[in-house]
Specification:
By secondary structure, the protein is of the alpha+beta class. It has two domains: about 300 residues; about 150 residues, Alpha-Beta Plaits (2-Layer Sandwich), CATH 3.30.70.270. About 70% of the residues lie in helices and about 10% in strands. It has 17 helices and seven strands. The longest helix has about 40 residues. The chain is elongated. It holds the Pfam family GGDEF. Keywords: Membrane, Transmembrane, Transmembrane helix. It comes from Paractinoplanes durhamensis.
């Protein structure tokens, strides 16, 4: 924090005093301030844990590209008095490269912080396309056209604004995903906002005689340096919680607004007889549609997966992963609707489970239940259903000639062996109540008969054996 305070005080003083400096010294002052975050970002890059340094490396590259453009501008244009087309292209090209790297750095943060947040990356691009189109058509393009700026510089200006808007969108996404405000992220967002403000102000007013716009530009670099020096910088690339990426009203409003905002603004300008960049409006709208469709498709898939997960939770036993009582009852209902022929239900209760659970502990008891569940499932056919009915009770549903006999043979083989549980070899027995469906049966009828038969079989239970009673 002392280093942060010193850096903020020194560079902040240079920024606020910029207009008080002699005109000949201002370009050099700007170059110094623009270079100042490099040591802070290098420090942040070295402090970042291995595997999370991509964003900081890209940000360092962005500052280097911006500084190169600044150096060309200071040396060739301001100091040497040159202003050739090639010089201007070199400055603009370096600035655009810096913008690309800054956007890439912000998207890397989205990916790392949001654990591969592809949806957040798409949202950032959508926001960039929509907001840049509005800003361009409503303000920048009319001002640049009126000033006689040629097509090439206009395109570069549009690209720079687009890159800045996308970077802001990505950083805002990080803030929303984290669920808490990270000071370094807020400083980086402010930095890009200052850069965007400088770009827009310069386009609207022209740079000649308006050195005040460079104050915003310099403030952007100071904010980057402060973000890199702040203690919260480590949290930027630390993986956070998996983002909540579900289809809801808020996201639908956002996507609808981004899809409609360009045509609405462009159409409104036409209605009032104001000039509009129809080509760019058409291109941005055409690019927005597949982005929005891809985003909605991802959100819809996420919603379907969430629904499937809820269904699994509602119909599965959380310990063994087997279908639970509800799923078992539902399956018997459906099987009876198809007819009672060759439909058998086996109601199984473990013998000797409680002593294992009491002596070795609940963890060992849970492991034993999981082992039994795996064994029963491995011995079943694809059409059979093995469910955990509750506690140490399992219900098996099977259909077909000999299906019940094959399952009882499997259970008999299981209880003849031992289970490695709690560091010991244990044996259990199984009491089984078997019933065959008959015409007119209900689900309650079948389960009641099987349950009663199981309790009858318990009268002859022996650990390590199968006790079977048919009803």
């Amino acid at each position: 924090m002392p280093l942060l305070r010193l850096y903020a005080a020194v560079t902040g003083t240079l920024v606020v005093s910029y207009l008080a400096w002699p005109a000949s010294a201002r370009p050099w002052l700007l170059l110094v301030v623009a270079l100042s975050p490099m040591f802070a970002v290098i420090r942040g890059l070295r402090r970042a844990p291995a595997g999370t340094r991509l964003a900081w490396g890209l940000l360092l590259g962005a500052i280097g590209a911006y500084s190169l453009g600044n150096a060309i501008w200071v040396w060739l244009i301001e100091t040497a008095g040159r202003s050739t087309a090639n010089d201007n292209v070199a400055v603009s090209g370096a600035t655009s490269v810096g913008g690309v790297l800054a956007l890439a750095a912000s998207l890397a943060v989205v990916r790392q912080r949001g654990r591969g947040d592809v949806g957040g990356i798409i949202d950032s691009v959508i926001a960039a396309v929509g907001l840049t189109g509005v800003l361009w058509d409503a303000a920048l393009w009319p001002a640049l056209t009126a000033a006689g700026v040629s097509t090439g510089p206009q395109v570069i200006n549009y690209i720079n604004v687009f890159l800045a808007a996308g970077t802001i969108g990505a950083l805002l996404r990080v803030s929303l995903v984290t669920g808490r405000q990270i000071t370094s992220v807020r400083l980086l967002t402010a930095a890009v906002g200052c850069a965007l403000l400088e770009n827009v102000s310069a386009a609207l007013t022209g740079r000649s005689g308006t050195d005040w716009v460079y104050v915003f530009y310099m403030a952007a670099f100071v904010a980057i340096g402060c973000a890199a020096l702040h203690p919260s910088m480590a949290a930027i690339t630390t993986p956070g919680r998996v983002p909540d990426d579900h289809l809801n009203n808020g996201r639908l409003v956002f996507l609808g607004a981004m899809l409609a905002i360009g045509p609405v603004v462009g159409g409104g300008r036409v209605m009032f007889g104001l000039p509009t960049d129809g080509i760019l409006l058409a291109l941005s709208s055409a690019g927005m549609i597949p982005l929005v469709m891809a985003r909605i498709a991802r959100l819809s898939n996420a919603r379907r997966e969430a629904e499937r997960a809820l269904h699994r939770l509602a119909t599965s036993d959380p310990l063994t992963g087997l279908p639970n009582r509800s799923a078992c009852v539902d399956r018997i209902d459906r099987e009876l609707a198809a007819g009672p022929d060759d439909l058998a239900v086996l109601f199984c209760d473990l013998d000797g489970f409680k002593p294992v659970n009491d002596r070795l502990g609940h963890a060992a008891g849970d492991a034993l239940l999981v082992a039994v569940a795996d064994n029963l499932s491995a011995g079943s056919r694809g059409t059979d259903l093995v469910s955990r009915f509750g506690g140490d009770e399992f219900v098996i549903i099977c259909r077909g000639p000999g299906a019940a006999e094959a399952m009882t043979d499997r259970i008999r083989a299981m209880v003849a062996g031992t289970f490695d549980t709690g560091g010991e070899q244990v044996r259990i027995g199984v009491s089984v109540g078997l019933t065959q469906a008959v015409p007119g049966d209900t689900t309650d009828d079948i389960l009641t008969r099987a349950d009663l038969a199981m309790y009858e079989s318990k009268k002859t239970k022996t650990i390590g054996t199968l006790s079977l009673t048919a009803a």
